[in-house]
Amino acid sequence: MSKTVQVSSVAEAYLELLAARGIDYFFGNGGTDFAPIVEAYANRFAKEETLPRPIPVPHEITAMAMAHGYTLVTGKPQVVMVHTLPGTANATGGVINAFRSNTPMLFTAGRTPITEGDLKGSRDGGIHWGQESFDQGSMVREWVKWDYELRPDADLEGVVDRALAISQSEPAGPVSLTLPREVLAKSLEEFTYNESPRMTAADAIMPPPDLIHKAALALASAKNPMLITQDSGRDPEAVQPLVDLAEVLGMPVFESRVCHLNFPQDHPLHAGSDVAGTLPDADVVVILEADVPWAPKRTGPNDNATIISIGVDPLFSNYPIRGYRSDLTLAGSPKPTLTALVEVIKQIGVDTHAVDNRTTIWVAAREKRLASIAARAKAGKEQTPISKAYFSSELSKYLGDDTILLSELGLDTNQMEFTTPGTTYAGSPAGILGWAVGASLGAKLAAPDKTVICTLGDGSYTFGVPSAGHIVSKVQNLPVLFIVWNNGIWNAVKSAAKNMVPDGVAVATDTWAFTNLDQECKYEMYCQASGGYGERVDDPAQVPAAIERALYAVQVEKRQALLNVIGA
Ligand SMILES: Cc1ncc(C[n+]2csc(CCOP(=O)(O)OP(=O)(O)O)c2C)c(N)n1
User: How far apart are CA 428 and CA 233, in angstroms?
Assistant: First the structure.
């Protein structure tokens, strides 16, 4: 059914449409290009019309990460709008993070006025020349599924509906829409659109039955199968089918890196992340939504093993180089593909005695692994600087279904056991640092009743433009607990140098250029500056009480908190 509304401009029609399409939030970082949007918001506020709620975010890195975090929790894409060329430049890292993590998003940027004449919206400021680009969309084109610049008198509804449908179709990802100022500013008296979107997103992808059958046969007859996943839990409904597959086969599930909860970590067949001890002996290896299932320089599968790849884009076609062997390649969304595999495996039948034996072996292996994880935490209890294993294990006591933990090189998540979908997230495979601060704020916006904990390295925190994040936390009333692991160094950079040249001069002389931060930095004061609770934690004996003080600030006082943990 169509609907006609009174509007004053194309910008207002655009906001009407976004609201009608269920967009909750419009994360904005504006400039002169926002004039039509600002005017349209004022009009709609005055008329008390529904709107995507405007969230002003004082840095693009934060805005992009907020939209990303919100979508991780809700599955619903949101809108980000940044300022022409400068905003697009600052936001590009966030677009790349969203693209590599298959996060849907309507990324938009204004465009400096195209015309020098008298049109409404034409150039009227000195900045309008220098901020023009021949092809602004090209800045993000490699990192979006579709990009377009809105033309005068374009079919606005068709453009927006198509953008949202493409963004959410598997493999999901961001789309980009450039919005020239004159186009948005153009006067319009009424706007007619369909109440339901003109097109829907393509549904889950299903591999052909004969491939499912071949994979099921290989798995049903395997003596030593294993599965490695990274991101199948992007769809929370894929968690149970993965449990079913593991159980029907007595097959261990490894997580190469946890971006989402893929498999309950308290399950007897959860095997941790270290595949090196198992991979060379496996006869069937399933790579499920994992871009880097193992490090080829360190380990690899047996030449005789059958490798089965499953994923919405199982060969990662947008990665330039990725040379993992794949004998059976199943292009399919995890939930229906795993469900179908389990059904066919049950029809074929498995050696239940062998399944029981394997399960017993993996239960014992898991207990051994957990004992050594617990021992690491215990050994670190009194260490100064504070041990990461010890701190992480203490924090894990406060985690549950009512918490969401986001991490970016912060703590040791091996010390934590996540069991429910939606309780933990990590950054994109693209690894563009600066994600966690904003993503945590977006997660809190999406789940206001949950305690959101953001754990991140001091380097990652600095990349995340904390000044902007703390302001948004305060202004939007989003109390997040930030835990900054302050080791005073970019350890990842030092380790990379050490690993590449273990017998080099840097190791011999303990000289590490480009790796040092400042362990004396009072990161807690950034949070205090925005009215939050801040504490420097350098005494291991104070760890449990410090965590409780910070949680009290967040949960009871409803203000943000930051623990600056002086760690090893
Ligand atoms: C935007 C960006 N710049 C640089 C890097 C390279 N990089 C990867 S890890 C890292 C250091 C991160 O430091 P921190 O968060 O303190 O964690 P640590 O390495 O100490 O564990 C850097 C600079 C990156 N991934 N992203």
Answer: 14
SS (H, E, C) 222-258: CCCEEEEECCHHHCHHHHHHHHHHHHHHCCCEEECCC
CA distances in angstroms from 407 to 10, 87, 455, 544, listed in the order given: 40, 26, 5, 20
Q: Is 464 in the pocket of ligand 1 (CB under 6 A)?
A: no
pLDDT of residue 332: 98
Per-residue pLDDT of 281-320, as tens digits, reads 999 999 999 999 999 999 999 999 999 999 999 999 999 9
Are 191 and 4 in contact by the 8 Å Cβ rule? The answer is yes
Atom of ligand 1 nearest to the CA of 495: 19
Using alpha carbons, list the distances in angstroms from residue 214 to 217, 229, 342.
Answer: 5, 20, 13
Asked if 268 and 241 touch (Cβ cutoff 8 Å), the reply is: no
**94 CA to middle of ligand 1, Å?**
15
The pLDDT confidence band at residue 377, using thresholds 50, 70 and 90, is very high
Is pLDDT at 48 greater than 90 in this prediction?
Answer: no
Task: Kindly state if the Cβ of 430 falls inside 6 Å of ligand 1.
Answer: no
Q: What are phi and psi of 82, to 5 degrees?
A: -120, 170
Task: Looking at the CA of residue 489, tell me the nearest atom of ligand 1.
Answer: 20
Average pLDDT, the chain: 97
Q: Could you tell me if 551 and 481 are in contact, meaning their C-beta atoms sit under 8 angstroms apart?
A: yes
pLDDT band at 49 (very low <50, low <70, confident <90, very high): confident
Q: Residue 203's CB: how many other CB atoms inside 10 A?
A: 10
Q: Residue 499, CB half-sphere, CA atoms under 13 Å: how many?
A: 8
Instruction: Find the mean pLDDT for residues 466-488.
Output: 98
> Which candidate, 316, 318, 339, 337, places its Cα nearest to that of 326?
316
Q: What value does the mean pLDDT take over residues 478-506? A: 96
The CA 433 to ligand 1 mean position distance, Å, reads: 6
Q: Whose CA is nearest to atom 18 of ligand 1?
A: 491
Q: How far is the CA of 492 from the centre of ligand 1 (A)?
A: 6
Kindly report the backbone phi and psi dihedral angles of residue 63, in degrees, each rounded to the nearest multiple of 5, phi listed first: -60, -45
pLDDT in tens, 16-33: 999 999 999 999 999 999
Are 33 and 181 within 8 A, CB to CB? yes
Q: Does the pLDDT at position 150 exceed 90?
A: yes
Long-range contacts of 358-366 (CB under 8 A, 24+ apart): 358/224, 358/249, 358/250, 358/251, 359/250, 359/268, 359/269, 362/250, 362/252, 362/268, 362/269, 362/271, 363/268, 365/252, 365/271, 366/268, 366/269, 366/270, 366/271, 366/272
pLDDT for res 50: 84
SS3 439: helix
Question: What φ, ψ does residue 482 adopt, rounded to 5°?
Answer: -100, 130
Give the full edge-to-edge strand order of the sheet including 147-149: 53-56, 25-29, 79-82, 105-111, 174-180, 147-149
* Ligand 1 centroid, distance to 406 Cα (angstroms): 16
CA distances from 92 to 38, 89, 139, 449, 543 (A): 24, 6, 8, 31, 38
